[in-house]
Amino acid sequence: MKIIYIITGLPTGGAEMMLYKLLSQINQERFEPIVVSLMDRGTLGDRIQALGIPIHTIGMNRGIPMPVDVWRLVRLIYQLKPDVIQGWMYHGNLAAQFASFLSGNKIPVLWSIHYSIDSLESDKKMTVAIIKFGAYISHIPKQILFVSQNSKLQHEALGYSSAHSCIIPNGFDTLLFSPSLTDRIDVRSELSLPEQSLLIGLICRYHPMKDHANFIQAAALFLKEYPNANFLMIGQGVDRDNSTLSKLIKELGVGDRIYLLGERKDIPHLIASLDIFTSASAYGEAFPLVVGEAMSCGIPCVVTDVGDSGWIVGDTGRVVSPRNPRMLADAWKELIALGEEGRNNLGKAARARITKDFSLNSVVAKYELAYEKILSQ
């Protein structure tokens, strides 16, 4: 069965990484996956191709697609002749649907949605328009796959069809993301920190919905009582060249305690070094991949109550309101008050929860079953 995955681009984001994880485990004896990036190969293109999976790019620029872009996509779909087209995120979903329509509506389409909607006012006008248009045509795809319970409910409240929708959560490779004392020591050595240094981390690309300011402001509050703590910030655009972050860090006087490492490829290594992982997002999260990865590494998490973050963590960490640095700092204090043994116990419970409910193998099997059902219909 030939499956084409259409995605906007291939940066190292959570939804993009989940596509990579799916492709890394999908049974290539039964399925023939092909990736079409509407923009370019991004940072994940080479990694996907290394799996033996072809990648095609359309070369589209941000904004409204040009007629030539649409023609290139339709011509590519006609040449590849897939059995199924899988859209990946909003733009990929719409592109998949249009490609099928312009090809005569003979190719079944699935959508996948990796976003939660607390308020449309938080999003850009173009994103809002795409979300609303998606609701209008949501009865057309053969199935809509949501990665979170919360996201499914929110979209259906906006008019998305519930007739052919289901939830397939993100999955995690518990062998790749696992506890490691060596990683803890190595990362502290890289940062020239003592072995017992307290390290709290945030890993995500720079975007308003990730609310890096919330994390930095909470760090400033926390450092008043724990002046020797350290904070690690990692992700695309999260480096010293980011003038907005650098300015805030300087204004709060925490520059000697916050390390901005930018985009890194050794995420499992970095996560396993932490004492506490944090998701500080203000909105937009559906099922944040990196939270499950931290839990798989046995790291207790403090997350804002956005999307399914609270449900993923359960009673293995702390859940706080978004846009509230004081609550975030207080939650860190609660975990510190538990002591090393108490945090280790939470970390063990977190890893057990991921292993039981969100293993990558079980999630990939659900995608494969969805493809087979669609084709049989």
Task: Tell me what you see in this structure.
Helix content is 44%, strand content 15%. By secondary structure, the chain is an alpha/beta fold. The protein folds into 2 domains: 2-171 and 359-376, Rossmann fold (3-Layer(aba) Sandwich), CATH 3.40.50; 181-357, Glycogen Phosphorylase B (Rossmann fold), CATH 3.40.50.2000. A 7-stranded parallel sheet has the order 3-2-1-4-5-6-7. The protein has a 6-stranded parallel sheet with strand order 10-9-8-11-12-13, with helices on both faces. Helix 4 (89-102) links the parallel strand 4 and strand 5. Helix 11 packs across helix 14 (339-357). The protein is globular and about 65 Å long.
Q: Could you give a short account of the major beta sheet?
A: 7 strands, parallel
CATH T-level fold name of the largest domain: Rossmann fold
The SS-based structural class is alpha/beta
Residue fraction in strands = 15-25%
* Nearest-integer average pLDDT: 94
Please give the order of strands in the largest beta sheet: 3-2-1-4-5-6-7
Count of discrete domains: 2
CATH superfamily of the largest domain: Glycogen Phosphorylase B
Number of E strands: 13
The low-confidence runs, each spanning 5 or more residues with pLDDT under 50, are none
> Fraction of residues in helices?
40-55%
- What radius of gyration results from the CA coordinates? 21 Å
Please identify, by name, the CATH architecture of the largest domain. 3-Layer(aba) Sandwich
What order do the helices and strands follow?
Answer: EHEHEHEHEHEHEHEHEHEHEHEHEHHH
Which term fits the overall shape? globular
